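Predict structure. Chain length: 151.
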Amino acid sequence: MTRALIAACLAVISVASPGRAHDTFFECLSQFAFGQSLGVGGVCQPGPGCSFRMRVCFNEPVPVPPPEQPSCVPGAIERVKIRATGNCKDGVAQLRATAVPLGDAATCGPSVPILVEHGRCVIHLKSRSTDGRKDVKRLYLDCPPPGGKCG
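Prediction complete.
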């Protein structure tokens, strides 16, 4: 592999992965959720336009692979921002309206459908707690054209 390709792969991995903040290896102020699964990264679904059901959770620990141990220091969330870029067609406003934290309690909003045209929709989630911690997540929703493949 060339150095440029390796650098590009590492850049994508680092953007899609949670990072270290305030001595907590996996910050848990805000997360994306699909059904009962929490996490960051991306989801792909082939078809002519795609619908992804998702929700936003607050103060929930992210499952991590061994040997890391999940840790979560809940925080009273004072600010949440959700925005989208790319081929997002519908549902982001509803996701934004239902993402309501309840102090420092672990809570999730209802599941809402996010519609994506062919291509990629990137949803950006930022939250800040009253003690100054910040959490930033990005989620990639991929929708290849009919006959296209994921990955």
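Summary: The CA atoms of residues 59 and 105 lie 7 Å apart.
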